[in-house]
Design a protein that fits this description.
The structure is a single chain. With 420 residues, the protein is of the alpha/beta class. It has 2 domains: 173 residues, FAD/NAD(P)-binding domain (3-Layer(bba) Sandwich); 162 residues, FAD/NAD(P)-binding domain. It is 18% helix and 27% strand. It has 6 helices and 23 strands. α1 runs parallel beside α2. The longest helix is centred in the last third of the chain and has 21 residues. The protein is globular and about 70 Å long. It binds flavin-adenine dinucleotide. Flavin-adenine dinucleotide binds next to α1, α3, α4 and α6.
Length: 420
């Protein structure tokens, strides 16, 4: 199709945005390389219990994408990898990718025999720190590649080697080196996504101080079938059923002291979370405190559906304080009562969920070459030069918007390839 077909489209980040961009580009004939920093593709959506607005599990969509990637020889996947150098000019870049040693090779069958002898534990990053895994671990149940990894921080170079005899397949390579690869690149798609805002910085809301104050991403894991409670909605302090749940919207968002912008997905995510609670316990009570409810398009129907549920109350007002009863672990939420008759409203809760916003993953990372970021750290696309940002690397977005972005970036990559 073009002189540029020998060059690849380099996709940085293997979440839903990066996978979609690579698949679309490769299915149209381009060679695509996905550079993913963690040991597995999937990104943040891989840890969601269900997707709004249909409330289907994200597993189906991920599996389809994995299958499309696996069956397409034009897509190369590099995990534990980062782009460390990018040089050149529009349409003709040279990229250097550094691949950290995973220390488990592709002979691994994910049988799990190595877990038991490993003496070291680490915080379970997939469950946002709820619970532990061993230093040798499977990144997630639906990992791609389906292979264990050794956490370099939990098990640094001088490891004990107790996992070695447990592996029947000779898959553990403790002396695996770090590698570098170089690529000729026609364009770069930044699909590096987001991370949750650090809720310990919002001191009045008690996160990090009270065990039963959790964030929205942790709540996804508390509800998930493959989560720490195997799908039972229990609160962290004592395993009690979480039947009185309060959601605090804009926890740190639209706030000059924290994130000045709206993260756009948190309101719809909390509506989804309200459904998790109401489905788990028919006698449950959900209270949502908000500044404005911001949902868009078809999510308005979803909002109407949740509003019709008598077990869900919507309160307009900012939450000022959360207090804990140290004997029971129960919480009291104190908030403005803008639409009501009193000045403040107090609500008792088993569990409080902070709807924390999205921070661009690259906010504090120096970008190679002439890439620019906006004032909040989101990457600004330079489409003429073939340097494009998609999904939450570009702006807070839901999955539909992210996939649309990714498809547009793949189309642009083909255009650039055809022109040069
Ligand atoms: C609580 C909550 C619930 C949500 N629920 C829904 C929902 O139900 N439905 C919906 O449509 N949306 C939902 N969203 C939004 C959804 O999470 C995003 O739309 C989606 O994650 C965007 O995908 P992405 O690929 O842009 O980013 P990500 O999912 O963040 O993926 C980015 C990938 O890039 C990798 N990466 C990061 N930095 C680098 C680097 N330097 N080098 C290489 N790789 C890197 C990461 O490891 C990751 O794999 C929710 C958001 C929140 C906060």
């Amino acid at each position: 199709m073009s002189a540029n077909n020998d060059k690849c489209v380099l996709v940085v980040g293997g979440g839903i945005g990066g996978m979609s961009a690579a698949i679309e580009a490769a299915e149209a004939g381009q060679h695509a390389v996905i550079v993913e920093a963690t040991p597995s593709l999937g990104g943040r959506v891989a840890s969601m219990h269900r997707y709004f607005p249909k409330l289907c599990p994200p597993v189906c969509g991920l599996e389809i994408n994995y299958r499309r990637i696996k069956s397409n020889p034009k897509i190369e996947v590099l995990t534990d990898a980062t782009l460390t150098r990018l040089e050149g000019k529009a349409g003709d870049y040279q990229a250097t990718v550094t691949i950290q040693a995973r220390r488990v090779n592709d002979r691994c069958t994910a049988c799990g025999d190595c877990i038991e002898p490993c003496p070291v534990e680490r915080d379970d990053s997939y469950n946002y720190g709820i619970g532990k895994t061993k230093a040798i671990y499977l990144p997630m149940k639906l990992a791609y590649p389906m292979r264990f990894a050794i956490d370099p921080e939990a098990c640094p170079g001088s490891s004990c080697g107790k996992c070695l005899p447990a592996c029947k397949f000779d898959a553990i390579e403790l002396d695996m080196p770090t590698k570098e690869r170089t690529f000729d690149v026609s364009c770069v798609v930044w699909a590096t996504g987001w991370k949750p805002y650090d809720a310990t910085r919002i001191e009045n809301l008690g996160f990090g101080k009270y065990k039963n104050v959790v964030t929205n991403v942790m709540f996804e894991r508390l509800a998930a079938l493959d989560g720490p409670n195997k799908g039972k909605l229990l609160r962290p302090s004592d395993g009690k059923e979480a039947k009185r749940v309060v959601f605090v919207q804009c926890a740190g968002s639209r706030d000059e002291d924290h994130l000045p912008y709206c993260s756009t997905v948190c309101c719809t995510a909390s509506l989804k979370h309200a459904c998790y609670v109401r489905e788990a316990y028919p006698d449950s009570k959900v209270e949502i405190f908000y500044i404005d409810l911001r949902v868009a398009g078809t999510a308005e129907d979803f909002l109407a559906r949740v509003q019709a549920d008598q077990g869900v109350s919507f309160n307009k007002g900012k939450v000022g304080q959360i207090l804990e009863n140290p004997d029971t672990g129960d919480l009291t939420v104190v908030a403005e009562d803008i639409a009501g008759t009193s000045k403040t409203k107090r609500v008792e809760a088993d569990l409080v969920v902070l709807a924390t916003g999205l921070v661009p993953e690259l906010a504090s990372v120096q970008l190679p070459l002439a890439m620019t970021k906006d004032e909040h750290g989101f990457v600004v696309s330079n489409r003429p030069d073939g340097l494009m940002a998609v999904g939450c690397a570009r702006a807070p977005s839901d999955v539909v918007r992210t996939v649309q972005d990714a498809t547009a970036a793949a189309a642009r990559a083909m255009q650039l390839g055809a022109r040069r």
